[in-house]
Amino acid sequence: MSTPLRGRRLDPDARREEIVAGALRLFTEHPYAAVSTTDLAGEAGVARGLINHYFGTKRALYLEVVRRLTTIPEVAVSELPPGTVDVRAGAAVDWFLDAVERHRGLWLSVGTGAAGDIDVDAILAEADEIAADRVLAALAPDAPDDPYRARLRSFFGLVRSASREWLVRGTLDRAGTRTLLVDGLLAVLRPGVPPGRSDSQV
């Protein structure tokens, strides 16, 4: 993604999105303390005052970036391919691995659950609930909320651990991480397939 051109007239929502996109690029490549408000403004192609206007502080912008990174967007679910639960689960894991690979640095600092930041922890907890909603709706719509939501939250812990094994320790490659996560997701969801219905009917 290239740095936006300066001087373009954008509506407030579009300008805000450009600032978030620029901040995502910078926080992916550099730790929080190494990124200044001036850097953020330059990356987004806006005056520094607009960062404060839209977000108030660098910290608030950073937390918005963390929220965007760790929350599964609705479009990621709506665009899953048709097919069996196995096919759709594989596509969902591929989407996740692509996102993690693109934003590796930021994911490792916050997405693995090791940030130790109360605000980031709250965002991760909220992201888990949203993810549970969207995964259940996409892959097991007939599964009861309880206990499958708890199973999915447990699975998200595996996701974070597997990310560290892949990206930090190198004990898993991407293919191995994919296999582990797809198998784990299917194991969590399989009981959600109602008796007498095949995966292809879910």
TrEMBL record:
Keyword DNA-binding: yes
The entry's keywords: DNA-binding
SUPFAM superfamilies: Homeodomain-like
Gene3D superfamilies in the record: Tetracycline Repressor, domain 2
One Pfam family linked to the record: TetR_N
Domain HTH tetR-type residues, every copy: 13-73
DNA-binding region of this protein: 36-55
Name the UniProt record assigns to this protein: TetR/AcrR family transcriptional regulator
